[in-house]
Amino acid sequence: MPNTPTASAGPILRGTPLGLDRPGDPPILRGTPPGFPGPLRGVPRTPGDRPVRRPAVFLDRDGTLVEEVPYLHDPAELALLPGVGAGGARLDAVVYCPHHPDGTVAGYAGACRCRKPGPGMLEAAAERLGLDLRASFLIGNHPSDVGAALAAGATPLFVTTGRAAGRRPPVGAAAFPSLAAAAAAVLQGWREPGPPRP
Ligand SMILES: [Mg+2]
Ligand SMILES: [Zn+2]
Predict the structure, then answer these.
(1) Which of 10, 23, 85, 144 is surrounded by the most beta carbons within 10 Å?
(2) Mind listing the pLDDT tens digit for each residue in 1-40?
(3) pLDDT at 93
(4) What is this structure's pTM?
């Protein structure tokens, strides 16, 4: 939920490593939050000095990384789901959509491209971090996660954790019982069977 009346047209990225901190220039990139692992050193360049676009794994938060708490805002209520803390992963950025279609704060109310299942958060991260979305994955536990991944050209992995426990995956996504299982599939080069998406 937005907590400031300052308008922002795009998704907000935090914890980015690239030194592109320009508050007020959406999408906004800010310094690495306390406790986050070390930053990247910058986007690699080709011999022709073009950015090398890299694959990424996008992670939904609620029900994928942490237990689902309505309007989670108190760190005391933050609880990692089983197995999430293992594996040595590094978060390069935290991205969120500050908008809501039924919002009342000017600049944040209304439809936007970044609210899932829109692809805007993935697109903004790709632009700023030099990512190859078609080689990237999004792991989430809600149909809107799958929709955002497909809209961005990324591969969705549906985890049946949180409120998705016992649910079937939406069309277009494979289901995994945990984040660890989905991560293992990514590391093993998992690809969605079937024809390539447009
Ligand atoms: Mg979720
Ligand atoms: Zn948004």
Answers:
(1) 10
(2) 434 434 445 676 654 433 333 333 333 334 343 333 333 4
(3) 84
(4) 0.77
Q: Which ligand is nearest to the CA of 160?
A: 1
Query: What is the total residue count of the chain?
Result: 198
CA of 109 to the centre of ligand 2 (A): 9
162 C-alpha to center of ligand 1: Å?
Answer: 7
Reading across the β-sheet that carries 94-96, which strands appear in turn?
Answer: 28-29, 12-14, 94-96
CA 45 to ligand 1 centroid distance, Å: 34
Please check whether residue 29 is in contact with residue 8, taking contact to mean a CB–CB distance below 8 angstroms.
Answer: no
Which residues have a beta carbon within 5 Å of ligand 2, which is an ion?
97, 99, 112, 114-115
What pLDDT is recorded for position 164? 96
How far away, in angstroms, is 145 Cα from ligand 1 center?
7
Tell me how far apart the alpha carbons of residues 162 and 165 are, in angstroms, rounded to a whole number.
Answer: 6
For residue 16, report the distance from its CA to the centre of ligand 1, in Å: 22
| Weakest-pLDDT range from 28-37, 113-122, 155-164, 170-179 | 28-37
Could you give the angle at the alpha carbon of 116 between the alpha carbons of 188 and 184, nearest 5°? 15
Alpha helices per DSSP H over the chain? 120-129, 143-152, 179-187
What's 96's domain CATH number? Answer: 3.40.50.1000
Q: Cβ(118)–Cβ(145) under 8 Å? A: no
- Taking CA atoms, 179 is separated from 32, 51, 62, 85, in Å, by 23, 30, 12, 10
Structural domain including 85 reads: 1-198
